[in-house]
């Protein structure tokens, strides 16, 4: 396995991405504390992103709105605009590509690049060129932090360290950290154990049980020992990454298609949550078909006042709307039976799982691939084609009435970049 002798990777993380995009696009929000929220009109959800001005006042991401308002009374709440963030993401990548080729977009606000000779020789100049170009071509309110190191994993850690350092000095939006291999441990050992990617809070608790409390102690383990602690090859791969080896990300296998949504107050009944879950599942089934998969299972998860409620059921290896929506109705019938007096539902998620590629579809020997199912598949394909032609949902099974705030299936998570079709 190759161990680079110099920096070879760049990792870039946009600062407060959703909030900074809002400020760049709306002059009224600039230089003011803002919090991006799921939808307007309620204080019962959380701030999903906040501006640097809000962070300076103590507001944090995923903080309850009521708590955020207590410490920052003049906080401006801005409903999320996922389609705007997707377009901003694409525009930023296009501009960065004029400076350096992007190896991979790791999320909506993070990307990684492989350095060429000039980038390895002068990373400060490369960082300055990228930030200057974004400022000139996009605007000054979208800033980024950049980390350089021998591999992607270390570059990501360097990026976060640079971001944290600029926050402490009040120079927000100018993060830069360069971890040359010959001085790696000087930087690495200053990182908290919980902040190491692939560790996190839960794994840190397991490491504590092995008397490992610092990143230095983790670094000094043997690779096989780390493999035993993780109970998988992930631990051994992390050892090599922390020691500066050229570790490539493993190809990810598609495991599920799903969507979730925080419910507006008027939709927190069984009927309201069902209607939104129906739209979410329709979007998930469309993605299933676009990527040529079938599903063998469906799950429904509800966040309720006393915890959560979970139901799932097997499917007959299907991908059409009629089959998935029929199964969803059966799951909701179980919910009604379990809660005959009704309940308050705060969030709903639907997931299609146990996937099979379309070219490897296998159904139960006792389940005939009947003509009715084939007709429904053709109907779903025809609906997809028609919606694609007009770039919006004009045909659907059942009423198509998105809830307040919209974003049915188009919500941006930090780990998946939605396609334009997700917003139809």
From TrEMBL:
Keywords: DNA damage, DNA repair, Magnesium, Metal-binding, Nucleotidyltransferase, Transferase. GO terms for cellular component: cytosol. One of its GO terms (biological process) is DNA repair. Coiled coil: none annotated. PROSITE patterns: UMUC. It holds the Pfam family IMS. Its cofactor is Mg(2+). GO terms for molecular function: damaged DNA binding; DNA-directed DNA polymerase activity; metal ion binding. Its EC number is 2.7.7.7. It catalyses: DNA(n) + a 2'-deoxyribonucleoside 5'-triphosphate = DNA(n+1) + diphosphate. The keyword DNA damage applies. The keyword Hydrolase does not apply. Monomer. Poorly processive, error-prone DNA polymerase involved in untargeted mutagenesis. Copies undamaged DNA at stalled replication forks, which arise in vivo from mismatched or misaligned primer ends. These misaligned primers can be extended by PolIV. Exhibits no 3'-5' exonuclease (proofreading) activity. May be involved in translesional synthesis, in conjunction with the beta clamp from PolIII. This is DNA-directed DNA polymerase. The lineage of its organism: Bacteria, Pseudomonadati, Pseudomonadota, Alphaproteobacteria, Hyphomicrobiales.
């Amino acid at each position: 396995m190759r161990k680079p002798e110099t920096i070879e990777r760049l990792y870039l993380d946009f600062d407060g991405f959703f909030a900074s995009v809002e400020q760049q696009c709306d002059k009224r929000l600039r230089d003011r504390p803002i919090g991006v929220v799921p939808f307007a009109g309620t204080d019962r959800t959380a701030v999903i992103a906040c501006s640097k001005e809000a962070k300076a006042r103590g507001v944090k991401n995923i903080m309850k709105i009521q708590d955020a308002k207590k410490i920052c009374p003049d906080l401006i709440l801005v409903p999320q605009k996922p389609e705007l963030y997707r377009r901003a993401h694409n525009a930023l990548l296009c501009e960065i590509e004029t400076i350096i080729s992007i190896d991979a977009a790791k999320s909506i606000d993070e990307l990684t690049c492989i350095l060429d000779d000039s980038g390895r020789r002068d990373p400060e100049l490369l960082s300055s060129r990228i930030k200057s170009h974004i400022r000139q071509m996009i605007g000054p309110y979208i800033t980024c932090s950049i980390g350089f190191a021998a591999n992607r994993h270390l570059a990501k850690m360097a990026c976060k360290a640079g971001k944290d350092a600029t926050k402490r000095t009040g120079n927000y939006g100018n993060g830069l950290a360069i971890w040359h291999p010959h001085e790696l441990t000087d930087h690495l050992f200053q990182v908290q154990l919980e902040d190491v990617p692939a560790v996190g809070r839960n794994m840190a608790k397991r490491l504590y049980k092995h008397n490992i409390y610092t990143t230095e102690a983790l670094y000094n383990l043997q690779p096989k020992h780390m493999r035993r602690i993780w109970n998988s090859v992930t631990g051994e791969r992390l050892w090599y990454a922390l020691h500066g080896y050229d570790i490539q990300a493993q190809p990810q296998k598609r495991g599920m298609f799903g969507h979730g949504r925080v419910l507006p107050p008027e939709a927190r009944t069984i009927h309201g949550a069902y209607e939104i879950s129906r739209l979410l599942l329709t979007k998930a089934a469309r993605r299933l078909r676009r990527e040529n998969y079938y599903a063998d299972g469906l799950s429904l998860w509800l966040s309720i006042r006393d915890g959560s409620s979970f139901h799932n059921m097997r499917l007959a290896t299907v991908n059409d709307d009629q089959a998935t929506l029929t199964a969803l109705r059966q799951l909701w019938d179980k919910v009604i039976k379990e809660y005959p007096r009704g309940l308050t539902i705060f969030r709903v998620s639907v997931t299609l799982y146990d996937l099979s590629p379309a070219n490897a579809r296998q159904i139960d020997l006792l389940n005939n691939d009947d003509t009715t199912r084939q007709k429904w598949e053709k109907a779903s394909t025809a609906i997809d084609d028609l919606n694609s032609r007009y770039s919006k949902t004009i045909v659907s099974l059942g009423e198509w009435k998105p809830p307040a705030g919209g974003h049915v299936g188009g919500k941006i998570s930090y780990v998946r970049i939605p396609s334009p079709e997700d917003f139809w």
